[in-house]
């Protein structure tokens, strides 16, 4: 999943007392690891997340499209593996569960996304359970300012 190697932390903030799902439609920049930049476009139930990675002097991107209504989606990976995903709101958190069957074995990934009450900080908790490894990583992104 790449990463910029930049360090830094931002205190995790709660999503506040919002009764319904948060509207997510922002460009955010990484403070922790994973993608260098996320661009998220959201019009319920569709959500598109573009991950951008700085590799040397160029930027490479990968777009993922989901629906937030709990319907299952399936992608074929370049290596021939199949990824099945399901995304839904759990309170104010957007949860995506992925199952991948590839040549290297089975993999389950859970992404839990939460937006701060002020809409400026996106926290993603990524849990990976695989045939040969298990790990959890948290990434914190801050909303881009207009000059980015």
Describe the structure.
There is one protein chain. The relative contact order is 0.22. A ten-stranded antiparallel β-sheet has the order 4-3-2-1-10-9-8-7-6-5, with no helix packed on it. Strand 5 and strand 6 form a beta hairpin. The chain is globular, with a radius of gyration of 15 Å. It is built from no helices and ten strands. The two termini are 23 Å apart. With 148 residues, it is mostly beta strands. The N terminus is likely disordered.
Brief rundown of the structure:
By secondary structure, this protein is mostly beta strands.
Q: How far apart lie the N and C ends? A: 23 Å
Largest sheet: 10 strands, antiparallel
Continuous helix count: 0
Number of strands: 10
Rg over C-alpha atoms, rounded to the nearest angstrom? 15 Å
Helix-strand pattern: EEEEEEEEEE
What topology, given as strand order, has the largest sheet? 4-3-2-1-10-9-8-7-6-5
Helix proportion range: under 10%
**Percentage beta strand:** over 45%
Catalogue the unreliable spans.
1-33
Task: Give the rounded overall mean pLDDT.
Answer: 76
Shape: globular
**SS content category:** mainly beta
């Amino acid at each position: 999943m790449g990463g910029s190697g930049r360090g830094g932390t931002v205190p995790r903030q709660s999503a506040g007392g919002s009764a319904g799902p948060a509207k997510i439609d922002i460009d955010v920049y990484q403070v922790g690891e994973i993608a260098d930049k996320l661009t998220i476009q959201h019009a319920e139930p569709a959500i598109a997340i573009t991950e951008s990675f700085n590799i040397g002097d160029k930027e490479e991107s990968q777009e993922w499209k989901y629906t937030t209504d709990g319907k299952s989606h399936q992608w074929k990976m370049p290596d021939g593996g199949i990824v099945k995903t399901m995304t839904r709101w759990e309170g104010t958190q957007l949860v995506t569960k992925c199952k991948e069957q590839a040549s290297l074995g089975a993999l389950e990934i859970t992404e839990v996304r939460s937006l701060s009450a002020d809409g400026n900080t996106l926290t993603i908790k990524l849990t990976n359970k695989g045939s040969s490894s298990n790990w959890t990583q948290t990434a914190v992104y801050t909303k881009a300012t207009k000059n980015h």
